[in-house]
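So, is this right?
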Amino acid sequence: MRMIDHVITGGTAGLNASRKADVFDPNTGAVQAQVVLGRQDALDRAVAAAQAAQPAWAATNPQRRARVMFNFKALVEAEMDALAHMLSIEHGKVIADAKGDIQRGLEVVEFCCGIPHALKGEYTQGAGPGIDVYSMRQPLGIGAGITPFNFPAMIPLWMGAVAMAVGNAFILKPSERDPSLPNRLAELWLEAGLPEGIFQVVHGDKEMVDAILDHPAISAVSFVGSSDIAHYVYNRGVAAGKRVQAMGGAKNHGIVMPDADLDQVVNDLSGAAFGSAGERCMALPVVVPVGDDTAERLRAKLIPAIEALKVGVSTDPAAHYGPVVTRAHKEKVEGWIQKCADEGAELVVDGRGFKLQGHEDGFFVGPTLFDHVTPSMDSYHNEIFGPVLQIVRARDFEEALTLPTKHQYGNGVAIFTRNGHAAREFAARVNVGMVGINVPIPVPVAYHTFGGWKRSAFGDTNQHGMEGVKFWTKVKTVTARWPDGSPDGGNAFVIPTMG
């Protein structure tokens, strides 16, 4: 049985550990590896190595740190096929989607190649008589990332690349469900020239999460996962004196105006609702057609498109999506399907009981479509995180706008329309952090920033872009005076002013 251990400077630390977790092949349901679930001692070793390495890394000039980013990007691109396969057989997303997972992470690495520009401070000459004021951004020291199973490449790179580019050491605690790719990324960082101790991987469950949140030497924690756990991570981390950003769940809506191109909408919904088996915080699991005529026309086009989707093993290039990550998650998704039906929604396409020939024990859920879902239903209020699309009909634009605005989550939203005024009005008024206009999955490019509102995010700073630079650094402001040797006649007992 293959064993997946920590990647800690100075050698592995957990092969003799008694706590292990199974890593499944979601295509077959079989156990393909085991991962060590680390304890406090493993984290302590990683922190000690980070403390030893970080001061020299912070003192390395930004251009040299950027060169490591360039080298890493080239190494990952050269190994893209192998990395995508490694990701696919543990997570279950198809190869093309796995490559997209890696590529979106690399785009943040590309942003970090320009870190010298992002770290430039502000300067004011002559702020007062003979006085200059300037600021500088300095690293926090040691940061940690706690990342989910659904993006084992992208989210660790979103966090770690920015944290390290600005001069921090970074300790990653990835999901124990698909831990192999994060380990390989750690090896590639070393090959790229990153000093030992600057990027390390510790594996574990809640015990390791709590150890990270409580460790006094870790200054900042970035988290992505469910909202309840995000709230817990934020509160515990802040109580321990850390800077914390904790991204939670989502229930993203797609508003379809009567003038929308429905063929394009159906194509977009097919990918946004069912791609990666719906296991994305930026998936689009709720579609809101405005008016019954729009709803009927959209439904008529959706049904054959959904029925034509091919569910297959993750390595099948013809498959639109593969299995969900674990048997427990498959059962959870199918439980939500039953719940939605029990609540009175119309089950138009039922994906339960899907069996793939030759892979009957795989964790597959067929595409599912509900109509006449209402905001009072628990299945609408909560995140299903599977290949399930719910139609919630709205009478008019105002009702459609109200649905995502009042929902407990506020991660992403999209509107499909040819009407510029409607799009502009919607973008300005909707109470959601990321908005797409005819864009079903509005994940911003790497030099902008990612983050939701309401129960989709806890903390004041978003991920990557300049918001990421701000999160992983602290500002120091210097007020300097170089006197010419003659007394200035000021009163030393009065608070200084620049007038």
About this structure: The chain has 16 helices and 21 strands.
